Amino acid sequence: MPHIVTDKCQSCRFTDCVTTCPVACFHGDGQMLYIDNVQCVDCGACVPACPVHAIYEQTELPPDKLEWLAINAQRAPTLPIVADKQVPLPTAEARKRELGY
Amino acid sequence: MNLGIDTASLGTSGNPLRVAIVGSGPSGFYAAEALFKSPLSVRVDMLERLPVPFGLVRYGVAPDHPKLKQPTVIFDKIAQTPDFTFLGNVTVGRDVGVEQLRATHHAILFACGAESDRRLGLPNEDLPGSHTATEFVGWYNSHPDYRDRSFDLSQEVVVVIGQGNVAIDVARILAKPIDELRGTDMAEHALDALAGSRVRDIHIIGRRGPAQASFTFKELRELGDLGGCATLVSESDLQLNSASLAELEDKNNFNAAKNVEILQSWITHCATAVGKRIWFHFMQSPVGIAGTGRLERITLERNRLTGPALGQLAQGTGAMVDLNCGLLFRSIGYRGMPLPGVPFEPARGVFPSTAGRIDGMHGVYATGWIKRGPSGIIGTNRADAVATVQSLLADLPQLDSRPKSGAAGLSATLARLNSQVLSYGDWRRIDAEEQRRGAVVGKPREKIPRVSDMLAVAATAPQGSRSCGVDEL
């Protein structure tokens, strides 16, 4: 089952996940990252790398985040690949605390 | 020696940064990728002791997990970089010395993994019927070192010691219906042997509790979904002490929480009269291996956990139980191997390093399992390789800045070896031949399991296109 980035990434965009992706399947806009579910090999290496646990395997998605499955699939292929760590958004640390991490 | 002659600064096209990467598994390729992403002019020479690249992606990832082999597509792209040279069938420390590499390259980056195994340290560990998981995994994956191993699959009861993903792989391959393995790239010799397997009960044993098991929940869950196989665990083995309950509360420990959740869902499973059974046992350590002439049983000691949450250790209670078994796989961790001229930390089986810089050496680095020990999955090694390459690039002003000869400087030594050095082009010929052989039998690939056959295929290139890695320079 592919992995999905949820809206917990918004206002964070820590991008630690992308360095662990063995197949460079993360794409991003200015807000957050998205996983190309065709490229994703379902290894799960990115899941523990995210400081706010924004990434879920499809079957593990919380019920209120199911919409992100389709959003990742739609947006990822249209956006540039993010394969290297970038500077988190300025709001990242505050958002992390807000999310309880 | 700099005689005052103008030399281009290191990392420019007139004086490219030449890095020797030792090992061609994930950490080696991801290190090459990170080096090529730097703004510097970089040449990478990758030395591999086997004729063929990709390390554990080729020889470790289970054949029924083809998606996890996809990183080879990325590795292949990296290898297409004009500044990349593959030197297969060259063993560093034997064919080429570390000192020699230091003379021909500005930096050496060890990515040679953990090729050996941690031992239990018990008498009779090598009794016939007792094997390492490494041998079994290498055997079914056509690794040349393990092609000629044999496993007595007429035995009905198998014990796997260890609770990492390798232990799960071993159990799954033993339990999976053979027809589900036939379309994979599993070695034909392994398919033949597994087709006649009489294995029925597989016991997976861990010294600590379910909250401390190190397999990833996806691997564990997959066992529960196998056709014709029951996964069994006793309720008493899933009793958690307060420290373990605290561990599961840790948000960063969600894999353990998932593992426990999956195991708990199996409590109600019943041992079926037909089919295979995988039994999970926790809080037990092997303390004896016994048998007359061959393995007959192991003795397990019941443990309890002591220490704080996330730092709990298993301590024997003195309560013993015997388990009869005909086959044993030890899967308690890989171990790196020492290499002449490089410091080695025997306790952890790694090259000791700080931020990827090997202790006490200059311009010599480590990444992947030889740096961290055998933990994490393929992608973990990408992040690790990026970190080590950052250290290497930060050290640029301290590296010997004189131009280096790179692989060309090794050609005289390699020519004297009287053995073939394989290029990436040679690998592509082997790759094509393996895919051709696989297609004949309905598989994505039939790996060539013998080094001599690989060398023969590499040597059958059309006249004029035959190349040796160093000659291509």
How would you portray this structure in words?
The complex is a heterodimer of chains A (101) and B (473). Chain A has helices at 16-20, 46-49, 67-75, 92-98; strands at 3-5, 26-28, 33-35, 55-57. By secondary structure, chain A is α+β, with helices and mostly antiparallel strands. Chain A has one domain: Alpha-Beta Plaits, CATH 3.30.70.20. In chain A, strand 2 and strand 3 form a beta hairpin. In chain B, helix 5 (133-140) packs across helix 6. Mean pLDDT of chain B is 94; it is low at 463-473. With 473 residues, chain B is α/β, with parallel strands linked by helices. Chain B contains 16 helices and 18 strands. Classes of the chains: A alpha+beta (101), B alpha/beta (473). The interface between A and B is medium-sized, with 22 and 24 residues.
Count every helix of chain B, treating DSSP H or I runs of 4 or more residues as helices: 16
Give the strand order, joined by hyphens, for the main sheet of chain B.
6-14-7-8-10-9
CATH architecture of the largest domain in chain B: 3-Layer(aba) Sandwich
Instruction: Tell me about the largest β-sheet of chain B.
Output: 6 strands, parallel
Strand content of chain A: 5-15%
Largest interface: A-B, 22 and 24 residues
Radius of gyration of chain A: 12 Å
Helix content of chain B: 25-40%
Count up the domains of chain A: 1
Q: Beta fraction of the residues of chain B?
A: 15-25%
User: Secondary-structure element sequence of chain A?
Assistant: EHEEHEHH
The domain tally of chain B reads: 2
- Helical/strand content category of chain A: alpha+beta
Query: Regarding CATH, which class of chain A?
Result: Alpha Beta
Low-confidence stretches of chain A: none
- What shape does the CA trace of chain B take? globular
Q: Measure the end-to-end span of chain A.
A: 26 Å
